[in-house]
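tool_call: predict_structure(chain=1)
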Amino acid sequence: MNWIDAINGAYECGGGFVILILNIRCTYRDKAVRGVNPWATGFFTSWGFWNLIFYPAVGQWLSFLGGAFLVAMNAIWFGQLLYYSRKERARIILSVADIPPEHLKAA
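tool_result:
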């Protein structure tokens, strides 16, 4: 293992903890997602899965371990984004359905 792999692996692992603490934990607590586009998280999650193929191919095993943790955290957060976004849209649709028709008429 070389020092470049060790530093990159530390960044990958650190990124996993950042996602866990700042995104997953807060999203679970709030049970809502606002102002986040799931496509961005989906893109970086897919890149993380690619890294699980790439790092072993170039012999970067510490990067692989850190990357595995990071992609797992991104995948969990991506799942939360999809779940809570759909839940929010369903809540909005149901709340609009409760508005009496006379209130929806143009003034």
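agent: The radius of gyration is 20 Å. Proceeding to next step.
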